[in-house]
Specification:
Blueprint: H1 9-19, E1 23-25, E2 28-30, H2 36-48, H3 50-59, H4 70-84, H5 91-100, H6 109-117, H7 126-154, H8 160-178, H9 186-201, H10 215-221, E3 229-234, H11 240-254, E4 259-263, H12 268-279, H13 295-310, E5 313-316, H14 323-337, E6 341-345, H15 355-358, H16 361-379, E7 383-388, H17 409-415, E8 418-423, H18 432-438, E9 441-449, E10 455-462, E11 467-470
Parallel strand pairs: 3-7, 3-8, 4-5, 4-6, 6-7
Antiparallel strand pairs: 1-2, 8-9, 9-10, 10-11
C-alpha cells in the first residue's frame, strides 16, 4: 500500500517555485517566466498516450530544461527512461521507480502523479501547450544570457571584443536551440533529388549553387554552394581582387542577390570605382592620358553606376578586421538584409585577438580560417576568401603555383571546400617578346574541389578594365 504524501499539492507548488531561479529587481523578487498549466498538460498527455506524445516530445526537442518546475522535470526524465527501455507507462510502476530513486517526495507524492493523469482530458492541444512551455524557456534563456553578459562586463575583462562575440554567440544559440530540424520523409527526399536531377539534365543552372559567370568554373564546381568556403589564392599583382569582384558583380548585380564585401586592403571608394568602370568597360586610365570619354562611354558609365547603386551590395573596408568583428557584422547583415554571399579581401590581413593567436601566427591563421568556414555553415551562404601565396612560384620555372604555396597553408587547405590558384603567365615572362605573347592569358588552377572535379579554368585578363573573362584570349592581346 502506498503511503499518502503529507505535503499538499498547493504547498508543494509554492515550495518548488521558491526553489526555481528567480530574478531580483529593485529589491522585488520576480519569478522567471513560466507556464505551469501547459507543463502539466503536456505531461498529462504523455502519461495518457505515451506512444504518441512522448515520441512527439522527442521530435520537438523537448528536454528537462524546458520545465520550470523541478518536479515536472523529474517526471519528464522518468517518462523518457520508460519510453527508451520500452517499459509500460502506468501509475504503480512510476511511483515504485520514484521510490527506488528516493525522489517520490520531490515530485509531490503519488497524489501529484494521480492528478497529472486526469489534468488534460483533451490531448489535442499538446503542441500548443508544448510551444507555450518552450517560449517561456526561451525567455528564461534570454534572461540568463543577459545576466551572464552583465556579470562578464562588470568583471572588467581585458578582451572586450571576445566578450562581445561570446554574448552574441550565446544569444544566437538560443534561437538555434529553439528551432526544430524536422526529419524529411523518404518520399520528400526522393522527390527533391529527382527534381534536382531533372534541372541538371535541362541545364537549369539556378538549381545548383550561385553561378560565378565563368562557364568552366561553374561546370566543374556546380556553382558556389551555401555553407562552402572558396579560397582564391595568388601572388601579388595577379588580379585576385578583380577576379573576386567580377564574381561578386555577377551574383549581386546580374543575379540580384544581396552580398557583402569585407575589404582589408582597398577603400570602399576604390572598390566602387573599379566596379563601375569595369562594368561599363571603360578604360579609366585613358583620363590620365588626356583622353575624354565619348558619348557612348558616358552612357555606359551612367548605366553601370545606376545598376550598382540599385543593387544590394554592402562594403566594409575596416583594415585588419578581427574574425570576431567580421562574424558579428556578417550576422547582423544576414539578419537585416538576408545577404547570400560574403567576399573577403584578404585572409592574411585579418586578425584574431585570442591569447593562443597572440603567440603563433600559424595558430592565428588557423583560427581565422576555421572561423570563416564555421560562419559559412552558420549563415548557410558561400564565402569567397582571397589569400596570399608565398614566394614558392618565384623559384619555380614558369611560376606555376601549387596549393602548398599557401601561407600557413595547413588549416586553409583543410577548411576550404574549393581552392583556386590564380595565375598569369605574362608576369613570369623572361623577355618582352614572351611577355607580349603571353599577354592576357590567365588561368585559375582549381586544386581542391570537395564536391567536384579539379583542373584548369582558362581565363582572359583585360588589364585596362581590371576584368577577367571566360576562356583563353584570342590571338591578338586582349585590351589592345
Amino acid at each position: 500500500m502506498i503511503a499518502k504524501d503529507p505535503t499538499s499539492n498547493a504547498e508543494f507548488g509554492k515550495l518548488a517555485l521558491q526553489q526555481s531561479q528567480d530574478v531580483k529587481t529593485d529589491d522585488v523578487m520576480r519569478a522567471m517566466p513560466h507556464a505551469l498549466g501547459p507543463e502539466k498538460s503536456i505531461l498529462s498527455s504523455m502519461l495518457q498516450n505515451p506512444a504518441e506524445y512522448i515520441s512527439t516530445a522527442i521530435e520537438e526537442k523537448l528536454t528537462r530544461s524546458h520545465f520550470y518546475l523541478p518536479a515536472h522535470a523529474i517526471i519528464f526524465d522518468l517518462l523518457l527512461e520508460f519510453f527508451e527501455q520500452s517499459i509500460e507507462v502506468e501509475l504503480v510502476s512510476l511511483v515504485q521507480k520514484l521510490i527506488d530513486k528516493g525522489m517520490l517526495e520531490s515530485v509531490g507524492g503519488p497524489a501529484a502523479l494521480t492528478e497529472l493523469y486526469s489534468y488534460a482530458p483533451n490531448s489535442g492541444h499538446f503542441l500548443t501547450h508544448l510551444n507555450f512551455v518552450k517560449d517561456k524557456f526561451t525567455l528564461r534563456s534570454i534572461i540568463g544570457s543577459c545576466n551572464e553578459a552583465i556579470a562578464g562586463a562588470y568583471d572588467n575583462p581585458e578582451n572586450v571584443p571576445q566578450l562581445l562575440d561570446s554574448v552574441e554567440t550565446a544569444v544566437l544559440a538560443i534561437r538555434e536551440n529553439s528551432e526544430v530540424n524536422r526529419a524529411v520523409t523518404i518520399h520528400s527526399a526522393v522527390k527533391d533529388v529527382m527534381e534536382h536531377f531533372a534541372a541538371l539534365v535541362n541545364d537549369e543552372k539556378k538549381s545548383q549553387g550561385y553561378m560565378t559567370g565563368y562557364e568552366v568554373l561553374d561546370r566543374m564546381s556546380g556553382g558556389l554552394k551555401p555553407g562552402e568556403m572558396f579560397i582564391i589564392a595568388a601572388r601579388p599583382s595577379m588580379g585576385k581582387t578583380s577576379f573576386m569582384m567580377n564574381i561578386v558583380e555577377h551574383i549581386c548585380i546580374d543575379q540580384q542577390r544581396p552580398a557583402m564585401v569585407f575589404s582589408c586592403e582597398m577603400t570602399t571608394f576604390q572598390i566602387v570605382q573599379r566596379l563601375i568602370f569595369s562594368r561599363a568597360r571603360y578604360k579609366f586610365s585613358d583620363l590620365s592620358k588626356g583622353l575624354k570619354p565619348q558619348k557612348k562611354d558616358l552612357l555606359s558609365i551612367r548605366r553601370a553606376s545606376e545598376e550598382i547603386s540599385q543593387s544590394k551590395l554592402f562594403i566594409d573596408d575596416t583594415a585588419s578586421i578581427t574574425i570576431n568583428d567580421l562574424r558579428a557584422k556578417a550576422r547582423r547583415k544576414k539578419r537585416d538584409a538576408d545577404i547570400q554571399l560574403i567576399a573577403i579581401d584578404y585572409l592574411q590581413l585579418m586578425r584574431s585577438l585570442s591569447k593562443q593567436a597572440a603567440n603563433s601566427r600559424e595558430r592565428e591563421i588557423a583560427e581565422i580560417s576555421s572561423g570563416l568556414k564555421a560562419l559559412a555553415k552558420e549563415l548557410n551562404i558561400p564565402i569567397i576568401v582571397l589569400a596570399q601565396l608565398n614566394r614558392g612560384p618565384e623559384g619555380r620555372s614558369g611560376g606555376t603555383p601549387r596549393m602548398s604555396d599557401l601561407r600557413e597553408s595547413g588549416s586553409i587547405e583543410q577548411d576550404a571546400d574549393m581552392v583556386g590558384l590564380l595565375y598569369r603567365s605574362a608576369y613570369y615572362a623572361e623577355n618582352q617578346e614572351e611577355r607580349q605573347e603571353e599577354e592576357g592569358k590567365a588561368e585559375l588552377l582549381l586544386s581542391k574541389n570537395r564536391n567536384g572535379e579539379t583542373g584548369s579554368v582558362p581565363l582572359t585578363f583585360i588589364a585596362p578594365l581590371m576584368r577577367f573573362e571566360t576562356g583563353a584570349p584570342a590571338q591578338e592581346p586582349a585590351g589592345s
